[in-house]
Amino acid sequence: MRPFAYEAPSSIATAVDLLAQGGERARPLAGGTDLLVQLRLGLREVDWLIDIKRIPELRHISYDPNEGLVVGAAVTCAELGEHPDVRRHYPGLWDGAGIIGGPAIQGRATLGGNLCNAAPSGDSIPAMIVLGATCTIAGLQGTRRVPVEAFCIAPHRTVLRPGELLVSLHFPPPQARTGACYLRFTPRAEMDIAVAGAAAWVCLSEDYRRIEAARIALSAVAPTPLLVHSASAALAGQVADERCLAEAARLAQEACQPIADVRGGIAQRRHLVGVLVKRALRGAIQRAKGELPHD
Amino acid sequence: MSHQGTPRAIRGTKRYTVIGTRPPRVDAPDKVTGRAIYGPDVVLPRMAYGKILRSPYAHARIRAIDTSQAEALPGVYAVVTARDLGQTTDRTAQVGESSVSFKFLCDNNLASDKVLYVGHAVAAVAASSPHIAEDALKLIKVDYEPLPPVTDVLEAMREDAPLLHEGMYTESLAGPSEKPSNIASYFQYLKGDPAQGFAEADVILEREFRTATVHQGYLEPHAATAVWSPDGFLTLYTTTQGSFDARAQVAEPLGCPLSKIRVIPTEVGGAFGGKNISYVDVAAALLARKAGRPVKITMSRAEVFLATGPTSGSVIRLKIGAKRDGRLTAAKAELFYEVGAYPGSPVGSGAYCIFASYEIPHGQIDCYDVVVNKPKTGSYRAPGATQATFAMETLIDELAEKLGMDPIELRLRNIAHEGTLLVTGNRHRSIGAEEVLRTTRNHPHYKAPLGGPHRGRGVALGYWGNWGARSSAMINVNEDGTVTLTTGSVDITGTRTSLAMQAAEVLGLPLENIRSTVGDTDVMGYSDSSAGSRTTMATGIAVVEAAKDVITQMKARAAQLWGLPADKVIYERGMFRANTPDGIQEMSFAALARQASAMGGPVRGKGDVNVRRWGGAFGAHIVDVEVDPETGKVHILRYTAVQDVGRAIHPGQIEGQIQGAVAQGIGWALYEGYVYTPQGQMLNPNFLDYKMPTTLDVPPIDVVIVEVPWPEHPFGVRGVGEVPIVPPPAAIANAIYRATGARLTELPMTPERILRSMGVI
Amino acid sequence: MTERVRVSAVINGEPVEFLCEPRQSLLECLRDILGLTGTKEGCNDGNCGACSVLLNGRLVNSCLVLGVEIQGQEVTTIEGLAHWDGLNLLQQAFVAEDALQCGYCTPGMIIAAKALLDREPNPSDERIRAWLAGNLCRCTGYDKIIRAVRSAAAALATPRQEVSK
What is the CATH number of the domain that holds C106? Predict the structure, then answer.
């Protein structure tokens, strides 16, 4: 690993200053579970690591039934899972966040880090997209907000400019008759990077028979986690039956752009998108109906 | 439903006091507290850290190496290349379980004229920290002339394939080939008249199989620490299965007499055959000599994958013929085994095992040992047998289905016995194949309901020949009647305990009175590597000999005390006893020990053996799987492993060995495999994408111990550790077939391959 | 090499101070600077668990923590689990159930198991397997490890004398 300097600021302002000074050669350090590996492999290079774990706003997590959920960028997956309201009100988010590695990784990995790493296969990202989460970003010019689906722009690249820091993620309060679910495919039981993943969010009609609105997002089958507009639109107003699930799956298969790599093939990935979208939709619909138990 | 592993010994006896019990492992307390010292844990004063520069090319000529900038980096103590090695004569020697050319061994330590695989060692640096050593590697300039690589076994056999060794000709009984070739050797086994045998068959099945390169996957990387004395004496702490083999592998390249090298084996963090060959010891020794300080080299995980000794990937073409009643009439196999950069694959033992389970009147096995631009293969637990058995046991399963026969019934109809002549010309001695199969058929798992859709059950039978070879044991009697047992056998599985148990049984002493240790090369007589499942068996024979030697000597002392001829003294249950004119005299072992030293010097029993006959063993496995028909994902529901161990010295350790091997077999079957680019770059040299089974991928494994004692070991021991890795891939393939209707002929049986076989993608 | 940083932390209940480069992992600092070689390196990228330690009571892979990050924090390693003259209940269970062979994964396994039992005194076998999924073992096939953790959980639930820290 190339040598680098290390700072641990305790305020956003200081962190932003340090990041701005370092430019492309400085990166924030949250859990380090992706970053340290990349530094060792030479996939990234830094001269400064700015440890953001001592900044209170970034460690903050809170839930309010009217305001929704705010998760600081440096909140670990383990802390997320231990918060009583996350599993209760955002089980779809926990589907993704909770399978990032095993308990030791969960003890360090963060939602913010998973998003900023911007891997095409980031397990927490599709659920964040379908839940309509937004990012709060601090920079020298002040604060700005970006919807999660616009955050990742290419494999391992985000909209963050030099000197900018992801501060927190905001999830809208859950509404009645909505549910979300994320599923992924891995060859082993767990502990793998997703070969393909799908998140679904639905809002059901008053009689629970129709899908009023839906969002579908995919992981590991495009350069970035992908919000599938066509599938989302096609579900709106449909009776929630297998036929419309199949149609959404087909549209998602059309929209995805899988590659072949050491983890999976193109035909396999495209096929899995179809399978996972249907299964994720079924899970989301069950949750919207209040049928699946919360973990 | 979870099944607890409840071993049941068939023909088990209560004749023994210690044998067959389950005492705690003697090395356990150090291991559960983190006190045990493994290779990477060694620390010496003034120690420097070494790192190795490795080739980025799969095949290239080395034109020049410039190490000057690296040498000038502050903190760097020494840099070495192949030029620092002495002249080596090209000769062959037995190292561990394979034979090796010492020139190739030197080149594999530090490449001289060519690099033959990505990761091939080219230079080494010693520095004050591992980070500085790594920084220094980047400053070494190597001028490579890239050459086209060949990475597929069948491609490498073609006449126009790029040659790894321009001076290598195919060795065969017909003499060397006319032209140089990547086929290092070819040999054929023939029994009877296969053409006639196939002509007599009612059913003939023929398939081609492929298996990927897989790694032993031990968690501890290779590590060695070398330190020289001013008078040229080398002490080497190293992670190895065989201290004496490790000594030989360093002595030759360095041009050192064996008496100038002491190898101290560290605690081994997993080996499975992969630590017979040393990969960092020569570089560490060279660096330490040049730097004038101790040097430790520890491999990284990527280095372990790229530059140690995984087992052969293979192509196997198999054809079997049988009568309608199930009797095999003929069998023919072509085994094409990739050996990596240098010759010496386990194709021979694959040939030995492929038909070893059955009576086959006519057979032919053609074996090809083929070099390719990948790391030189090493031994991996029953080397060569798992690949071969995957082919044979799935084809046998297909035959059973075609004939409408129960899979175990078909196997019983053809099963080998003592006296069976194998296609390879060996004749089975005492074996327990039939007992294992009958026990398997009678196990409740075999008839249990599957309990759901998309589920299937598979069985497979596997054989491994095991090994004997040379061992050295010494028992010192302490003044208080306790004893110290030392052998030259590195403990990679728990043999400190199983050997002490054998000593305790013979000596009639409680196990707690025996301190069991492993001696280094200064202390013990030559011992072959702890490999081939030989240690509890062959070193056990040496230990029993040493124990009997102790008793003989002690009897002589007692006789001297009592004024009797020695043959009048008996020893039983810890007491020496004799009828004398003054009545019965008796004395405990401890009491006699207190006097023995003063009487005739220290009592030390020794056993030095070369065990030339050993018992092969069989294992049969039953596995239930569930396959998700939409994704091809396999879930293993239930697993039972039945195995003949001859005599179970420590049933708990045996269960552990079998369960561990089954887990490796599951990985080999479903998840593991080196993935290469056509340019010979390995894409998955890490534990994320080289997928070994986790707790969630392995079910509880029921172990059933069968005992058909091997007559030529004092307690009947047969080797245990390797047999159980042989059946799993075939058993799982057969289960997947029954769950999905798809027969897979390629390992690993990934979800993608399963979906393809099912016609889903 | 950049300037080394002074780090003060509490390791196994004892205050320590050491100098390290920012690029040195906690694993390297434990092993190479502090002489605590009980924690092992298996992969150095968070995929095997051999380097498991507790950081402020939480299970982490020490290969993915930098030494400088533990400033003012508390770390527990395998060396911190047993009193000098005995083994703690988890360690005893591993010995009694023969839940180890080569022993290389064992320190990480025991630390991970401790983290589980500290939180959930009565885990099911499925829960134990899920929790330990990040700790690879190549020797045992996991069966006896699960039994050992189950046995330790039962023993911890029974009030008895225990010689441990």
Answer: 1.10.150.120
Residue B89 pLDDT greater than 80, yes or no: no
Q: Which of B401, B327, B399, B362 shows the shortest CA–CA distance to B198?
A: B362
C69 in the same domain as C15: yes
Q: Check residue B2 and give its pLDDT.
A: 35
The residue to which tokens 């370092």 are assigned: A22
Distance CA B283, CA B278 (A): 10
User: Does position B6 have pLDDT exceeding 60, yes or no?
Assistant: no
Amino acid at B191: K
Task: Give the start-end residues of each E strand in B147-305.
Answer: 183-191, 203-211, 223-228, 234-238, 261-265, 295-298
Q: What's the whole-model pTM score?
A: 0.97
For residue A99, give the chain C residue with the closest CA: C130
Q: How far is it, in rounded angstroms, from Cα B698 to Cα B716?
A: 31
For residue B672, pLDDT beyond 60: yes
The answer to whether C45 contacts A40, with C-beta atoms less than 8 Å apart, is yes
User: Could you tell me if B445 and B1 are in contact, meaning their C-beta atoms sit under 8 angstroms apart?
Assistant: no
Q: Does domain A178-288 have CATH number 3.40.50.300?
A: no
- The per-residue DSSP string of chain A comes to ----EEE--SSHHHHHHHHHHHGGGEEEESS-TTHHHHHHHTSS--SEEEE-TT-HHHH-EEEETTTEEEEETT-BHHHHHHSHHHHHH-HHHHHHHTTSSSHHHHTT-BHHHHHHHT-TT-TTHHHHHHTT-EEEEEETTEEEEEEGGGTEEETTEESPPTT-EEEEEEEPPPPTTEEEEEEEE-SSSSSS--SEEEEEEEEE-TTSSBEEEEEEEEESSSSS-EE-HHHHHHHTT-BSSHHHHHHHHHHHHHH-----BTTB-HHHHHHHHHHHHHHHHHHHHHHHTT-SPP-
Average pLDDT, stretch B168-187? 94
User: DSSP state, B522?
Assistant: T
| Chain C residues within 8 A of B1 when measuring between CB atoms | none
pLDDT-derived band at B150, boundaries 50, 70, 90: very high
Report d(CA B694, CA C100) in Å as an integer: 15
- List the CATH code of the domain at A5-51: 3.30.43.10
C-alpha to C-alpha distances, B63 to B54, B82, B140, B143, B145, nearest whole angstrom: 15, 13, 14, 5, 7
> Is A43 an interface residue toward C (CB < 8 Å)?
no
- The minimal CB distance from C82 to the residues B33, B38, B658 is found for B33
Strand segments, DSSP code E, in B519-654 are 570-572, 575-580, 583-588, 604-611, 617-627, 634-644
What fold does the segment set B1-11+430-464+615-761 form as a domain? Aldehyde Oxidoreductase; domain 4 (3.30.365)
**For B387-399, what is the mean pLDDT?**
98
Contact status, residue B479 vs residue B594, Cβ threshold 8 Å: yes
The stretch B43-66 carries a mean pLDDT of: 98
Alpha helices by DSSP H, listed for B183-295, are 194-199, 243-254, 281-291
ipTM: 0.96
Assign B202 a pLDDT band (cuts: 50, 70, 90): very high
Cα–Cα–Cα angle for B168, B170, B171, rounded to 5 degrees = 110
Q: Which of residues 96-125 of A touch C (CB under 8 A)?
A: 101-105, 107-108
Answer whether B693 touches A (CB < 8 Å). Answer: yes
| CATH assignment, A56-171 | 3.30.465.10
Identify which of A43, A51, A198, A186 has the alpha carbon closest to the alpha carbon of residue A130: A198
Distance CA B625, CA B634 (A): 7
**Range B149-428 has CATH code 3.30.365.10:** yes
B469-611: CATH, from 3.40.50.300, 3.30.365.10, 1.20.1250.20, 1.10.40.30: 3.30.365.10
Is B1-11+430-464+615-761's fold the same as B469-611's? yes
